[in-house]
Diguanylate cyclase/phosphodiesterase
Amino acid sequence: AAKAAGSQLMVYTAELDERADATARLGADLRHSLDDGDFRVVYQPIVELDTGRARACEALVRWHHPVRGVVSPVDFVPVAEDNGLIVELGEFVMRTSCWKFAGWRRDLGRDAPGYVSVNVSARQLSEPGFPEVVAGILAETGMEPAQLLVEVTETALFGGGVAVAAVETLHRAGVRIALDDFGTGHSSLGLLRTVPVDVLKVDKSFVDEIIAGGRPPVIVDALIHVSKGLGLRAVAEGVETAEQADYLRELGYEYAQGYYFGRPVPEPSFHARAAVPDDR
Ligand code: C2E
Ligand code: CA
Ligand code: CA
Ligand code: CA
């Protein structure tokens, strides 16, 4: 038995080594791809439920790996956080998104989105000088601070300290702050008292509970009350069906995003579309 356990352990460590190798390779590829310009940004509309109009959008990074094709951020953002490249990558995403937004404001007239939402990781927030980098990008693109929404996770703020101080600095400068994946991290409700937050992004896992004939989706219901009570804007994430959109609107949600309204694409359309409620 001891021998069997021993060989199992060897298999296990070999697997771990392989995984570590794969991660190291991915990390090295990230470096090359940053230099070669293999990253793109796509934008997913954030829709006003009453009118069906895209009022804003979220920027999401895409990696066009020279060999593997498109790699999901779920697979490489954690690697970039570990090796620190997220700082450079995140700045690229922020700058690209803000220039894109400035172009829409210039070209689209009254169809232009009101703000662009950009994901910022814990590592970026904790990097000294991050608020200054953001201020510089706003200045070069001519954006108003309130036209930028920075999405941070509860987990990124859990440690307090530098990350929270950065959020406070950004917020004082007029940049708006969203708590991403709200309800899935640590100490959700307590954070709302200590960190300046403008928007709650209600996680897809709670929206998924809205199923025809299913049990009442109690958490999306509770969270709209929490956000209204605190004077925050709620955005429901991951809406995939008309039923979910209708249900959320009836609960009092004003904003949502999800494949039902539009997938993330390089050039989203912000043209007014037919109202969601009746004429489907
Ligand atoms: P997230 O910030 O929660 O972004 C929402 C994710 O859900 C996106 O996946 C989006 O494409 C996907 N999504 C939107 N609507 C639907 C829907 O109706 N159904 C389903 N199944 N999925 C939907 P994506 O683009 O693969 O990004 C995954 C995660 O990677 C993001 O989750 C975010 O945590 C991270 N990420 C993406 N871009 C960036 C970035 O520029 N910087 C940082 N730090 N993280 C990023
Ligand atoms: Ca997000
Ligand atoms: Ca999210
Ligand atoms: Ca998520």
